[in-house]
């Protein structure tokens, strides 16, 4: 893998967006590997394939690439709100790759968010386009990276430093048990996991999570039984090996 991007890939294009897209996609074809298996490369999908830019030839994992010069680890613009919410509900979201490049066309940051880490709490609904817009009334969305568990944001390139593929795959595999949780339950589990990870320590007690009850109530206003739901989700995370129950209301984070 190299952080240098081939500027010649943008030759013949006039639009800045088209140039950036071509250069970033060419870099991805030459450098990306699959985080979900041992494949050392991914293949571009046919032109106009909706929401998916690359697919692994070995395990068929799908990837979507979003590239730009600005770096924002809190929010990433996405496409239609309704389409994203439908994809989450049907468990059909691709792995997300967020790439930042420098004015010199070097990859400075590349972040991977596994497909099974997405939930409705991490999607922000944007305002409808104005009546005079070409797509008047269309509603887009933002992906709130800040609403995802920290361990769910896998760094492939970090401030120009390349992370070894085995380390990327190891982190991906540690989170993969969440893929077996049905989407309707997974959102709650991810919200509880994010709170647990915010403690910044390997051990915690049930009361620590209860103290964040209002945060979960804001995310799930229709649920009036927050504490029983917290206990349920801690059990889900335990059953999938993400947490260990130590007894007497004590837990250990295993990932």
Question: What does the model show?
Answer:
This protein is of the alpha+beta class and 255 residues long. The chain has 2 domains: 141 residues, Dam replacing family, catalytic PD-(D/E)XK domain (PvuII Endonuclease, Chain A); 71 residues, Orthogonal Bundle (Arc Repressor Mutant, subunit A), CATH 1.10.10.10. Helix content is 31%, strand content 23%. It has a 7-stranded mixed β-sheet. It has a 3-stranded antiparallel β-sheet with strand order 4-8-7. Strands 11-13-12 form a 3-stranded antiparallel β-sheet. Strand 2 and strand 3 form a beta hairpin. Helix 4 packs across helix 7. The longest helix is centred in the first third of the chain and has 16 residues. The protein is globular, with a radius of gyration of 20 Å.
Condensed summary:
The chain has helices at 16-31, 81-89, 165-175, 183-198, 206-210, 213-219, 226-239; strands at 43-44, 54-55, 62-68, 75-80, 95-101, 107-113, 123-125, 140-144, 154-158, 161-162, 203-205, 243-247, 250-253. It is α+β, with helices and mostly antiparallel strands and 255 residues long.
């Amino acid at each position: 893998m190299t952080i240098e991007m081939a500027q010649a890939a943008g030759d013949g294009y006039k639009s800045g967006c088209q140039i950036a897209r071509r250069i970033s996609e060419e870099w991805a074809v030459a450098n990306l590997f699959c985080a979900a298996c041992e494949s050392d490369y991914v293949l571009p999908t046919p032109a106009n394939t909706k929401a998916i830019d690359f697919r692994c030839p070995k395990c068929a994992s799908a990837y979507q690439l979003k590239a730009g010069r600005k770096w924002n680890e809190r929010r990433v613009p996405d496409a239609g709100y309704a389409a994203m919410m439908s994809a989450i509900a049907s468990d059909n979201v691709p792995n997300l790759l967020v790439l930042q490049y420098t004015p010199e066309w070097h990859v400075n940051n590349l972040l991977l968010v596994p497909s099974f880490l997405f939930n409705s709490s991490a999607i922000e609904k944007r305002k409808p386009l104005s009546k005079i817009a070409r797509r008047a009334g269309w509603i887009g969305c933002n992906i709130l990276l800040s609403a995802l568990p920290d361990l769910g944001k896998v760094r492939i390139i970090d401030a120009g430093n390349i992370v070894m593929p085995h380390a990327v795959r190891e982190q991906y595999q540690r989170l993969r048990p969440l893929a077996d949780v049905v989407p309707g339950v997974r959102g709650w589990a991810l919200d509880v996991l994010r709170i647990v990870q915010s403690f910044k320590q390997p051990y915690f007690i049930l009361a620590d999570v209860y103290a964040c009850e209002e945060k979960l109530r804001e995310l799930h206003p229709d649920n009036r039984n927050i504490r029983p739901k917290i206990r349920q989700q801690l059990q889900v995370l335990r059953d999938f090996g993400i947490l260990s129950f130590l007894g007497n209301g004590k837990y250990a984070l295993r990932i």
